[in-house]
Write a structure and sequence with these properties.
The chain is built from eight helices and seven strands. It is globular and about 50 Å long. A seven-stranded mixed beta sheet has the order 2-1-3-5-6-7-4. By secondary structure, it is an alpha/beta fold. Helix content is 35%, strand content 17%.
């Protein structure tokens, strides 16, 4: 912890050269996107996207789960989505899953989560179970050569359990479907003012794959 404390202590001095940029943030925020991802410490949205302060509105949950929209039962997640869409006016929402995901992996492996009942009950929001949903085509590409459909392999040199990698991608698509049931999202999307994107981040390589709705495959950005 001490290195983190030391950095926080010196942060003001380190950013002195960018004082104008930080001063402008006091006037408000106008982020480009809402970025929904896992609480996992290995997934850093600003590092992945290169976002500057004020450019991403973030929602981090265990397993990047978006709970169902339930009128009359407010949740922090629903409030964050609604604020991003209706107040900040973001034009994009990204749901980003990742390799080596402990939450989805626990479901795939059928682990006993009785010792962590809050985790067990939270993962119930993944319904339908990512193990039983249809599998999107997934094959990596390169920036110059987009990937092509291939349901037989999650990624070259994935380094993760292929079953988990596939389940994470199915899980991302399930969260996008849940988001579309939120009234604010449904309204803005129907008006062509909001785009939903599904991403998959490889922790061990830094590669980012994006879901392509036209072909239902995940390929390099």
């Amino acid at each position: 912890m001490q290195p983190l404390i030391d950095h926080a202590r010196s942060f003001g001095r380190l950013t002195a050269a960018r004082s104008g940029e930080f001063a402008r943030l006091a006037g408000g925020q106008s982020p480009q996107a809402l970025f929904i991802t896992c609480s996992d410490s290995r997934v850093i949205p600003a590092l992945i996207t290169g976002a500057r302060p004020g450019e991403l509105f973030e929602l981090r949950t265990a397993g990047n789960i978006v709970p169902p929209y339930t009128p009359g039962r407010p949740t922090s997640e629903a409030a964050t989505v609604e604020y991003a869409v209706d107040v900040l006016g973001v034009r994009d929402i990204v749901v980003c899953g990742h390799s080596h995901c402990g939450a989805v992996g626990a479901l795939v492996r059928g682990e006993d989560l009785t010792p962590v009942p809050a985790v067990r009950d939270w993962l119930a929001h993944t319904v339908p179970d990512p193990r039983t949903m249809s599998t999107p085509n997934t094959r990596p590409g390169t920036p110059d050569s987009p990937g092509t459909p291939d349901s037989s392999a999650p990624s070259a040199g994935d380094g993760d359990d292929p079953a988990v990698a596939q389940a994470v991608r199915r899980h991302v698509l399930a969260q996008l479907r849940t988001l579309r049931t939120y009234p604010c999202v449904a309204r803005r999307a129907a008006d062509g003012e909001l785009r939903l994107r599904g991403w998959y981040y490889e922790v061990h390589t830094g590669a980012v794959l994006a879901h392509r709705p036209d072909t239902d495959d995940f390929a390099a950005l």
